[in-house]
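Example 3.2
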Amino acid sequence: MGDLERRLYDLSQSDMYPFHMPGHKRAMADRFAPEDGGSLYSYDITEIDGFDNLHHPEGLLLELQERAAALWRTRRSFLLVNGSTCGLLAAIGAVLPRGGHLLMARNCHKAAYHGAYLGNLRITYLYPAATGCGIQGSITPRQVEEALEREPDIGAVLVTSPTYDGVVSDIAEIAGAAHKRGIPLIVDEAHGAHLGFHGAFPETAVRCGADVVVQSLHKTLPALTQSAILHLCSDRVDEDRLAWLLTVYQTSSPSYVLLVGMERCLDILEAGGEELFDRYACRLKTFYERADRLQRLRVWSRRELSKEEAFGLDPSKILISAQPIGLTGHDLYERFRKSYRLQPEMCQGGYVLMMTGMMDTDEGMERLWQALLEMDEQWASQQAVSVQYADQQAAEKGCPADYVSLVYGSRSQQMSLTEGLEAPREEVPLEQAKGRVSGTFVTLYPPGIPLVAPGEVISEEVLEAVSLCRKLQGSVHGICHGQIKVVIS
């Protein structure tokens, strides 16, 4: 057994509970007994006779895609084995010609930026609201309307909803604003494949008027990592071009292991999805009711976000604030892992994200609640830890209340994304980069949103954002050994 396999095996045998993706929560073996199917390796084939071809489906895979389209009620659904990334690349390429103009939310995943680069697109950014909770909020319909009025040559709109943190935008109104001008709306719904299946969760963009919706099945549904789906919902997008671009951006050797995982996911949704979602919604309801009893720790819910900050919030994303007790998100993240054997999805700023799904267990949710209760009681019993002291500690650790504005604030764009990446570049020490134009992405990962993108000016605010993220022990990509690539002026 190799080192990688050994580590994976050890994890599978441990008591570390997964409050992170993938959505199957490593529990599929319990649902599919050995006699119900073969081993992982026995399913790993290529496009041999009788097994269809994902790039030209006519049999089994066509039927599977038609099942997905019927389940989500779309015009056509495409199975993706290269994750939501390939779906976003294809969607962006299908809605705009090379050199076109894209209206895009600045909090989109880096894959959207890659799609814009490949199409040599001009980008106008929409900046989401900064919430009082320390997360990014929604993109508003008014923002979209104003941008389209200001720049009438915009040819398509792209937003992320829900965000990594579960914030949902008003997709129906945004779609209406785009369609009024005859242009399509792409929604990156990678974190919302579960939406629309139960009233406890927001509606899916598929049924809110979006033209193309990309979902990561593996993030919140019981599917294998890298499994995703693209839904074509209208005739505003060239279907043939979209299908062709998927052959460009997907591997020519699609994994049948991933495809059978998607088939099993559809089986579960069709056969027992309603009952599973009922139980899931009940678990979450119980958890949030209990969380109201916490004295020091704070679990955010919809009521803590104003309508102006967020149109909606997906309750499947459990956001736990450490700031009331004077800790950073990273501090709390490490306590969950080391003291309670609970693996969070991510931490950022002053909070931790626990990602839940329909395959979570009562036992797992109980462990999370008991961990929260124990930590809360410990801090509540320490009378010396006053609110004032906690605020002081948070400030000293560098987790300010306006974290979002500092880290994801507006950037000055000196040249296009493509120009920034393709212009002659040089590496300079980060501290000497102030005022220069970035020739690379500097990204906080997760969530994968650029702190600065190619073509944008590396301002004092950018340097402060990088410093703050590092101070909070975030993983900043794009700076190597203290050096950053800048455009040669």
